Amino acid sequence: MRLYPTRLAIGLAALGAPLALAVGLAAPGMWSAAAAWVLMCAGLMLADALLAPRLSGLALTLDAPRVMGLGRAQDATLEASFTGAAPREVELAMGVNARLTASPDRQTLALAGGWGRAIISLTPQRRGEGQVEQLWARWRGPLGLIWLQRTETPDRRIAITPDVERVKEQALQLFSRDALFGLKAQMESGEGGDFHALKDFQTGMDLRAIDWKQSGRHGKLVAREFRTERNHHVILAIDTGRLMCGPTPSGPRVDQAINAALLLAFAGLKLGDRVGLFAFDAKPRVSSGVVSGAAAFPLIQRLAAQIDYSTEETNFTLGLTTLAGRLDRRALVVIFTDFADATSAELMVENVGRLMRTHLVLFVVFRDDELEALAQAEPREPDDVSRAVIAAGLLRQREVVIGRLERLGARLVDARAEDLGLSLLNAYLDAKRRELI
Fold first, then answer.
1. Do residue 213 and residue 244 come from a single domain?
2. Radius of gyration of the chain (CA)
3. Predicted confidence band of residue 160 (pLDDT cuts 50, 70, 90)
4. 222 CB contacts (<8 Å, ≥6 apart)?
5. Is residue 310 within 8 Å of residue 281, measured between CB atoms?
6. Domain tally for the chain?
7. SS3 (DSSP) at 142
8. Which of 131, 161, 191 is the last residue of a domain?
9. N vs C: which end of the chain shows fewer Cβ within 10 Å?
């Protein structure tokens, strides 16, 4: 709680200085008039403070979301209500930590009947724990000479998670009946390895699907219908090291990887598979057992929110060896990572090779738009030639690593950040249809 003068009070006090100087020069014996002016101003400010609505009469009520998706703004409301006398208007401000921005950070709210509500837009800047650190409210006395200010510390914490709403929108579009490629029917029945039901044979069906024994029993052609095999283990292994925290036009790579992993987790759980999450940099950071059922998706979401940004180099030997030791059956292991050159990728390739002896590995890498732009840019200066040559060399080294992974048997998803989710999902569905897991 604070009391301090307004600009009007400061101007009024300053106005007395030239008057006191003039009086002092004209009549030195009247110098005490300057002190009288100061006392008069102080008395007016004291009267203004006594007549103003009391600080204890204000109640501030904050209503803010508990969970927010990265990149999606949500509104918080701040209510101000006075008991007893109330000012005509009050200024409100909100202070947040570095993971959030508040807009507007300060606003003037007109009160009606001593009550008013302010809308403040909160925008997450990075994953983690956002916090509303302080609330400020101030108002003038009836004479406009004094500010009364109240400060509160609400300690309101907001969990900033990956953008789950966008993930759900993409997934629901995929599972809708009018999806562009009709994937719902393809995923549910007709192309898998598990027997589903018998149905009457129709023209155009695969002749190999005819069940001759049942056809003889029923006196008509009957075909076997299959559905995609369920209960596979899908492990989402996310590299959170220094390179993965680098920026893309859509945000840090690790955030794009988490969004794509959540999309795959949502689809996998809906299709009956069991999904687990694993994150590592210099050492394992997040590890979950496999879970099943759509109701388990919030657990995957909470674990993904715990994945933080890192400046440490990735230890593929420790991370992938730890992961392999926790897998007790064949699984689809989806590895999200990035590498700078063939030398730094050597240990990664070696450890991925060991993992592929037992498991199907789906390797997800980000296409580097910046390097491609530098390699293809028209040179205008000598430095442009050097940049293009270096960029082309790095791209060739990248292709060498990708080629080695493909020869080892890994399946690759090489896409831009904005296309990563759907490209990964297509690769997952293709692996299920071909019964590779």
1. no
2. 33
3. confident
4. 198, 199, 200, 201, 210, 211, 214, 215
5. yes
6. 3
7. coil
8. 161
9. N
- 3-state secondary structure at position 252: strand
Strands 233-239 and 332-336 come out as parallel
* Same domain for 243 and 133: no
Co-location of 221 and 235 in the same domain: no
Q: Is pLDDT at 406 greater than 50 in this prediction?
A: yes
d(CA 110, CA 89): 4
Do residues 234 and 361 share a domain?
yes
Query: With 90 as the cut, is the pLDDT of residue 376 above it?
Result: no
- pLDDT, tens digit, 9 for 90 and up, residues 227-275: 555 688 999 999 998 888 877 777 788 888 988 898 899 889 988 899 9
Query: Exposed (0-12), middle (13-18) or buried (19+): which is 206, by Cβ within 10 Å?
Result: exposed
Instruction: Assess if residue 191 is contained within a domain.
Output: no
Is residue 62 packed enough to be buried (19+ CB in 10 Å), middle (13-18) or exposed (0-12)? middle
**Alpha carbon distance 134, 93 (integer Å):** 8
Q: What is the CATH number of the domain that holds 254?
A: 3.40.50.410
If you write DSSP's letter for every residue of 348-386 in order, what string do you get? HHHHHHHHTTTSEEEEEEE--HHHHHHHHSPP-SHHHHH
Asked if residue 192 is part of any domain, the answer here is no
5 and 147 belong to one structural domain? yes
Report the pLDDT value the prediction gives residue 186, as an integer from 0 to 100.
41
- Please name which of 377, 415, 94, 139 lies closest in space to residue 259, comparing C-alpha atoms: 415
| CA pair distance 314, 257, nearest whole angstrom | 16
Q: What is the DSSP letter of 191?
A: S
Distance of CA 63 to the CA centre of its chain: 21
Output the pLDDT for position 62.
93
Boundary residue ending a domain (109, 140, 161): 161
Q: Which residue has the tokens 């950071």?
A: 285
Q: Which domain holds residue 31?
A: 1-161
CA 33 to chain centre: 65
* Pair type for strands 89-96 and 67-69: unpaired
Q: How confident is the model at residue 181 (pLDDT cuts 50, 70, 90)?
A: very low
Q: Which residue has the higher pLDDT, 19 or 383?
A: 383
The verdict on 207 and 92 lying in the same domain is: no
Q: Are residues 247 and 151 in the same domain?
A: no
Same domain, 100 and 140: yes
